[in-house]
Write a structure and sequence with these properties.
Length: 195
């Protein structure tokens, strides 16, 4: 029976024994600006994290990799490189939002499942953000407020791309863009900041 598990760990923290299993892996990456915004609200509502402080302070910490799971840049680049030697399907959140059925077909093909149209439609329906936001197995609303306080921010907040434009100032965006260019130099990995 196939086994599936979810992790947010950077590639370098997985044990060598994991890589020896010849697993099929699916990695989903999201553009860093939307990740920073989402993470900021998650830090506020998930009580396992320290208070993030102001948005400007948190953004500086995010850019420096001084948040849980470390540097976003190292995370996405590490998994991007690992795909060259492992059976790893690298997906982008923005692509999933743009054309979920296309991305579902990619996953099914990668897993060796025939992408029957009825199956693709069922998966698209059940994994739509609005549907998952109502699903207690996905939205964490059953957890006590001492763990996740949904009155501060829901776990599943908006599920859109480009929301960073509602949070970043012009100066923050310019600073972030310069840091992004520096941190992503030398890789063919690129992200769309909106669709």
């Amino acid at each position: 029976m196939p086994l599936a598990f979810l992790t947010h760990l950077p590639v370098q923290l997985l044990p060598d024994s994991f890589w020896e299993q010849d697993c099929k892996m699916i990695y989903v990456a999201r553009n860093p600006k939307d990740v920073a915004v989402s993470y900021y609200y998650f830090y506020q509502m998930a009580k396992v994290h320290p208070d993030p402080g102001s948005w400007d302070h948190f953004l500086a910490d995010f850019m420096a990799g001084e948040v849980s799971f470390g540097s976003w840049y190292q995370h996405v680049r590490g998994w991007w490189e690992k795909r060259r030697e492992q059976r790893l399907l690298y997906l982008f959140y923005e692509d999933m939002k743009e054309d979920p059925r296309r991305e579902i077909r990619k996953v099914l093909e990668f897993l060796g499942c025939p992408p029957a149209e009825g199956l693709v439609e069922a998966i698209a329906r059940h994994t739509a953000f609005a549907q998952m936001k109502q699903n207690f197995m996905a939205n964490y609303k059953t957890l006590p407020t001492s763990v996740m306080d949904h009155s501060i921010s829901p776990f599943m907040r908006k599920g859109v791309t480009g929301d960073w434009k509602n949070q970043f100032t012009v100066a923050q965006n310019e600073r972030f863009d310069a840091d992004y260019e520096r941190q992503m130099e030398g890789t063919d990995l690129s992200f769309r900041m909106e669709i």
